[in-house]
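Input chain follows. Return structure tokens only.
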Amino acid sequence: MATVVPGHTRRGDLAMRTWANPITGDAMKLPEAFSWSVQRVMRTWKWVAAYTALTFVWWAFPSWFGDPTLNDWNRWASLMALWIESVVGIGIFASSIRDSVIIRRIDRNETTNGLLLERLDSLLEAHEDLVGKLAKDQTDGQ
């Protein structure tokens, strides 16, 4: 694969790049990284306050916005809500997929560990039996 000069990307390179999750450090692809970036801004009290203030200003002084109707605001707010929930959904969906992969790996490890413990127990019993027989043979031989 060719080296990509910083600041320049070939087609497809951006989609193949991974970003680190800011909380877990897990590798993320572009959609999830974008989702985290947007959520990092939207999930703050400043965003909620600014959005609420804009809503009240729009309702109180619609002429400042070209005299739109309340329906215009409702359409814009509905579209924004749909967009925000889609962005959040992308992040949650990608995270839940990654979590399910890890949970399955843990389950496989627990199954494997259980089988290994059973095998170790049987080997320990066999060892104890062998040691007992050897001890008996030594005492019988004297």
